[in-house]
Amino acid sequence: QVSLAQSGGGLAQPGGSLRLDCRASPVPSGDFEMGWYRQAPGKQRELVATLSRKNLEYADAVRGRFIILREGFQGPTYLQMNNLQPNDTAVYYCVMKTMWHTFWGQGTQVTVSG
Fold first, then answer.
1. Any residues with CB less than 8 A from the CB of 72 and at least 6 apart, and which?
2. 57-96, pLDDT tens digit by residue?
3. Are the beta carbons of 71 and 81 closer than 8 angstroms?
4. Cβ burial, residue 18 (10 Å; 0-12/13-18/19+)
5. Cα–Cα separations (whole angstroms), residue 37 to 28, 29, 79, 114
6. Model confidence over 18-51: pLDDT tens digits?
7. Are 27 and 40 in contact (CB under 8 A)?
8. CB-based contact 10:112 (threshold 8 Å)
9. How far apart are CA 42 and CA 51, in angstroms?
């Protein structure tokens, strides 16, 4: 069982920046994909960005503003969010997908309001 601990997020003004951190414990052996999803009030959970050895993907709504980073293969995963807008307000979830399982973080609130 993998535990994903999230930190960061909070409140930002439109045009501001925030960073989300996700730390896995333990880090599994083998290849896996890390990603971020978000769920706004009254909406379905949606993909924000994913990163693996072979693939990097961003949702159209965040491409050019958000960056997903991983600190080496064993290190934490970050979501750097720039030029935040009110419609970025949501609970953000860190996700790890291995060959056999999908693990979710606890969720972190991001609110963009000015």
1. none
2. 999 999 999 999 998 878 899 999 999 999 999 999 999 9
3. no
4. buried
5. 21, 23, 10, 24
6. 999 999 999 888 889 999 999 999 999 999 999 9
7. no
8. no
9. 27
